[in-house]
C-alpha cells in the first residue's frame, strides 16, 4: 500500500506537476492488536518452574520493573540502587533516562545472584562475560512457558505488558505507569484515568505480591 501511494504521489509531483490530492497525504493507521498479558497466577507458575538462578533473575527483573528486553541487557551493576529501591534505565528508547521500581523480593534474589555469578560490568552477563544475548533471553522465556504449561502466545515483552496491566488492576494511576514504562504519549498506555497524588517512590512492584 505504501509503494502504491508513493508511486501515485510521484506521478502527481513529477509527471503531472499537480498538487498531491489530500487523500494521499493521510497517514495509514496501523491495526491495533491487544498485547498478550499473563495473569498473576501464570507469572507465579512461570517463575517457579524456572529453576536456574540466572534465568529466574532475568524473567523476574523484566516483569517486576516493566523493562524492555534491550533495557535489561544494557543494565550495569551501578544502575541498581538498593537503598532507594530503584533501577536507573540509561538512554532507553527515545534516548531518555528514567527510574523504575526495584522490588524488595527481586533485590534479595539479586543478592543471591551476585554471590553465585559475580558479574563484572553488566548486571546480566554471558558465560564469558560481556553483554548477555537477547536470543538467550527469548529462549529462556520459551522454555519456561512450556514448563509452566502456558499456551498463550507470550513473548519476553509480554512480561512488560503484564507488569503494566497488574499495576492498573491494583489501582495505580495511569500517569505513573506511563512514567515507569517510559512512554512519551499517554495514549500509548491505552487506558485513561484521573491523575492521583501518588508518587513513584510509593508504588510497590507487583512482584512483591508473588509467592516466590
Quickly list its features.
single chain; 212 residues; mainly alpha; hpI Integrase, Chain A; three-stranded antiparallel β-sheet; 9 helices; 3 strands; 46% helix; elongated
Structural description of this entry:
With 212 residues, the protein is mainly alpha-helical. It has one domain (40-209): hpI Integrase, Chain A. It is 46% helix and 5% strand. The chain is built from nine helices and three strands. Strands 1-2-3 form a three-stranded antiparallel sheet. Helix 4 (53-65) runs antiparallel to helix 6. The longest helix is centred in the first third of the chain and has 14 residues, at 2-15. The protein is elongated and about 70 Å long. The chain starts with a helix and ends in a 31-residue tail after the last helix.
Concise summary:
The protein is mainly alpha-helical and 212 residues long. The protein has helices spanning 2-15, 22-25, 40-49, 53-65, 69-74, 104-117, 134-147, 156-169, 174-181, and strands at 80-81, 86-89, 98-101. It is elongated.
Listing every helix as H and every strand as E from the N terminus to the C terminus, the arrangement reads HHHHHEEEHHHH
Uncertain parts: 190-199
Classify the helix fraction into a percent range.
40-55%
Q: What's the total number of strands?
A: 3
Whole-angstrom Rg: 21 Å
Largest sheet: 3 strands, antiparallel
Enumerate the strands of the largest sheet in spatial order, edge to edge or round the barrel. 1-2-3
Distance between the termini: 49 Å
Count of helical stretches: 9
Question: For this structure, what is the CATH homologous superfamily?
Answer: Intergrase catalytic core
Overall outline: elongated
Strand content: under 5%
The domain tally reads: 1
